[in-house]
Amino acid sequence: MCSHQTGGVPPDSSQDMVAVGDTPNRLNGHHGPNSATHPPNGANGHSSAKERRNPYAPRASDFLNNVSNFKIIESTLREGEQFANAFFDTETKIAIAKALDKFGVEYLELTSPAASEQSRRDCEAICKLGLNAKILTHIRCHMDDARIAVETGVDGVDVVIGTSSFLREFSHGKDMTYITKAAIEVINFVKSKGIEVRFSTEDSFRSDLVDLLSIYQTVDKIGVDRVGIADTVGCANPRQVYELVRTLRGVVACDIEIHLHNDTGMAIANAYTALEAGATHIDTSVLGIGERVGITPLGGLVACLYAANPDYVKSKYNLGMLREIENLVAEAVEVNVPFSNPITGYVAFTHKAGIHAKAILNNPSTYEILKPEDFGLTRYVSIGHRLTGWNAVKSRVEQLGLELTDAEIKDATAKIKELADVRTQSMDDVDSLLRVYHSGIQSGALEVGQKEALDRLLQEHRAAQLAAE
Ligand SMILES: [Zn+2]
User: Fold this and answer.
1) 295 C-alpha to center of ligand 1: Å?
2) Active-site residue among 259, 261, 351, 356?
C-alpha cells in the first residue's frame, strides 16, 4: 500500500475515533422527495384544482429531468490520459477498465487509436475483454481518424470539433460550412459500420448559439446517436448549463451528452443541472483527472446523484468499489485522494462536535445524507478532544463493555475534556482513562466528583504501565 491510498478509515482512527454502527431506529426516507420522480399529475396521478394552484407543483420543465435516468461515460482512459501525471501502460489501462466495468459504468471512453500505435493496440485489447460497458473512442472530426477508429472493435465513436470563435480562428481555422460538411461525412461513415456515433462541439459555451443549434440539428437529422456539449475551458455556470441543455433538448431528438471541466469547481453542480435540463449522458473520470484540473469526478457525481435518489444509484452501480477504484487510479497517477473528497475523503464520515456526535448516535441521518455502509465504509465519532460530549463517550463505554452510570460517564468526560485542553487524546488514552475510572468505581476507590482520587488512580496506572515496559 502506498501513501496515496485512502482507507475508509482515517489514518489515525485506531487512535482517537469510535466506529459507530447504524442504529436500528434510523429513518428511511431521509433524502427527501426525489424531484425526478414526480408523476405527471401530482402525487397520486390525480390533479385537483388545489394542486394546480400550488406554486411548488411540478412544472413542464421538471419533466425534462434525468437525475434518475442517466448514463455515465467514464473517460479516465481518455480525458484522464490528458492529466499531467498520467501515463497508463496497457496493464494499468486494463485494470482500470475492468474495475470501472465492475463498478457498472455504462460506457468507457478510450484515447483515439489515431493518437499513437500503442493507443491503437490498447484500444483493441480493451475491446476484446468482453466487458459489459460499451467501449467508445474519441476522435477528431476527420475521416482519417474515423477509418482507424472503426477498425478497432469499438461499440461507438465520439467525434469532436471546435466551434468557438477562438478555436476556429486560432486552432483549426475552419468555418462552419466546412465543419458541417466534415461532420456529415464522418457521421455517415461511422453509421455505415453499424456502430454508435456521437457528435460534439468543443468549447460549446463560447460558441455562437445559432451555429451550435444549427449543426446539432443537422447531425440529429442524419441520425447521430448523441450530440455532445463540452465546457472545454470550464467557464460555464449552472444556469448557463441549464439554459443551453434545455434549449438543445427542444431542438434535437437524440441523446445529449455533456463534458464539463472543473476549472472553477463547478463540474459536479453543472453535471447535475445538465441532467435536470434533459441531458442523458455525463462524462466523468476517476478523481476528476484530466486536462488542467480535470472534469466531473466519478465519485463526486455519484455522491450528488445518490443524494437525489439513493435507490436508483444503488441499483445501477457497485458503490462498495468506489474507494478501490479511486485508490487504483490515485496510485497510477501518483496523487493522494483529497481529504475533502466526497465519500472517500478520509474525513467524509467523521463527526467531531459533541452536539453532532449525540445526534449521529441517535440517528445518523441527522448529519449525514450519504450512508457510509452503502459505500462499504464506516462512520466515526471522534471523542478524544475538547469539543467532545458525554453521549459519544457513553457510546465508547458501551463498546468497551464497561458499566457506568450517566453521572459517572459525565464525570469521566469532564476529565477527558480537561486533558484534551492540553493535547488531543488518542483512543488508547481515552480507553485507559475509562478503564481506570471503571475499576476505581468498582473497587470503591473512586466516586463521582473525586478529582484527586481520579488523578491518583491515573498516575498509578501510568506508573504501572512504565514499569511493565
Ligand atoms: Zn475535456
Assistant:
1) 7
2) 356
Pairing, β 281-284 against β 71-74: parallel
Between the CA of 29 and the centroid of ligand 1 the distance, in Å, is 37
Q: How many degrees, rounded to 5, is the angle at CA 300 between CA 381 and CA 126?
A: 125
Cα distance between residue 312 and residue 133, in whole Å: 18
Residue 358: CB atoms within 10 Å: 18
Q: What is the pTM of this model?
A: 0.81
**Model confidence at 144: pLDDT above 50:** yes
Question: Per mean pLDDT, which of 42-56, 388-402, 435-449 is the most reliable?
Answer: 435-449
pLDDT of 46 above 80:
no
Query: Which grid coordinates belong to 70?
Result: 442517466
- Active-site annotation holds for 438: no
- In the reported structure, the alpha carbon of residue 254 is separated from the centroid of ligand 1 by a whole-number distance in angstroms of 22
Per-residue pLDDT band at 380 (split at 50, 70, 90): confident
Radius of gyration of the chain (CA): 28
What is the grid cell recorded at 55?
406554486
* Total Cβ atoms within 10 A of residue 77: 29
User: Where do the domains of the chain lie?
Assistant: 61-317, 383-468
Distance, in Å, from the CA atom of 48 to the CA atom of 443, rounded to the nearest integer, reads 71
Q: Which of 121, 195, 192, 117 is nearest to 152 (CA)?
A: 121
Burial of 279 (0-12, 13-18, 19+ CB in 10 A): buried
Domain 61-317 belongs to what topology?
Answer: TIM Barrel (3.20.20)
